[in-house]
Amino acid sequence: MSIYRYAVPFFSVLFIVGCSTVKKARQAQTGTNRSPGETIASAAQIGFPPGGRYALTNFEAVARTHHPSLFQARQNVESARLQYRMTHSSRLPQITASGTYNRSTQNARRDTSTGMRGSWGGSLGLDLLLYDFGKLDAGERQALESLIAAEEQLRETGLDVAYNVRAAFFEYHRSDELVRVAVESERQYAQHLEEARVMVEVGTRRRYDVTKAEVDLGNARLTLITTSNALINARAELNRSLGLAEQTAFDVGDGFLPPHPGSADTLMTTARDNAPALAVLRARERAASAYVDQTIADLYPDLSLGANGDLSGRGFPLLWNFSWALRLTQNLFDGHRKTARIDEAVTQLRTARSRVADAEQTLYQNLVNAVAELESANKRLETSQLVRRQTEENLAIVNEQYRVGVSSSIERTDAQVALTQAQADVVRARYDGQVACARIARLTGEGTREPEQTD
């Protein structure tokens, strides 16, 4: 009876735990209680109702919560954590239970009968690994490094999401400002057309000037159509980076990234310590090293303890028996499979090391390119701002000369085109610099650093 006294509570606890796990699994199947990122949310559901104005920091916060790729990365971390737990469970006793009821005839020699009698049986077994020369330790290290790699991959995904939000945010502002430039250019050409018509009526200009102004206005309108379409696409890309799949009506606010001081070598020092892409590969390298240990330990035997308790009989109370044994298991010959696995594990380790080296080389090259892009954008911004001021002054002079009959309509158009181009160059250079800053932050592993807001 003492066995039943302990067995009933034990199996009751297992039943309750199992029911809770099954209930959660069934809820996941039915789709109830879905987490952010597991399904598409609307702009209102994520806190962006129509009419609101939101800055870059708001967009990043929403993406970190609702973007599907981050949800998938979090699930990968949870999966790796469960794999580690399952690997560790091999250290614990493995307990099995069984019960039988059997009916059979009891014929012997010439005495035969079709009558059947029943018998009861049950057993409780225990199996415990005592020593395996480090195989389980190596397996746990592999599972732990896989968990670390999954956590670093989650951070890597977070950097990707933050970079995509920032790139889409700056592209939206670039497109929006280019639309404003195009609108102003169209207004200027419309004004030119009106002035040309008036001057033709009073006889100070030829009909050609009106035709030229009409062509210029038509080209300006085509440019406005193109830039407006680019703005629509930029808005869609921004929505996508937030994890949305709908047309939105909120306003896009301000935000900018401060420049990253330092050369590519200085940034590379930071990246070696902070970039999750390198951390993932280093974790996989350590896992490959643990796999080498596991394959070597597999050459040696396993020592385990087994115990078994049986209950059997045709009626109650049942008879019981107990046994235990120490087992030493060793594969004497497997066709050199184990030594081949060791050689294979070594090749995997060397490959993992090579991937770290290759990733560092690629990272350094990308940092050099990003720093060069930032420096180029800053120089282009400085030059284009100077050119814009000069073209503004030049257009004012040409417009005045045109009104008094000194400049031609072609000169006026050239001056307006030069100003429009200079204004667009300023916009492109400014946001090229911001995208370069976002890329540097992404490469150095600092992509989640809070952006600054404009006044």
Structure commentary:
The chain has 455 residues and is α+β, with helices and mostly antiparallel strands. It has a domain of 269 residues: Outer membrane efflux proteins (OEP), CATH 1.20.1600. The chain contains nine helices and six strands, in the order αβααββααβααββαα. The strands form two sheets. The chain has a four-stranded antiparallel beta sheet with strand order 2-3-5-6, with no helix packed on it. Helix 4 packs antiparallel against helix 9 and helix 8 packs antiparallel against helix 9. It starts with a helix and ends in an 11-residue tail after the last helix.
Q: Which features would summarize this protein structure in a list?
A:
455 residues, alpha+beta, Outer membrane efflux proteins (OEP), four-stranded antiparallel beta sheet, two-stranded parallel sheet, 9 helices, elongated
Helical amount: 55-70%
Low-confidence stretches: none
Roughly how many Å apart are the termini? 79 Å
* Total DSSP E strands: 6
Topology as a string of helices (H) and strands (E) = HEHHEEHHEHHEEHH
Strand content: 5-15%
Shape: elongated
Look at the structure and name the CATH superfamily of the domain at 53-90 and 133-171 and 195-209 and 232-300 and 337-444: Outer membrane efflux proteins (OEP)
The name CATH uses for the topology of the domain at 53-90 and 133-171 and 195-209 and 232-300 and 337-444 is: Outer membrane efflux proteins (OEP)
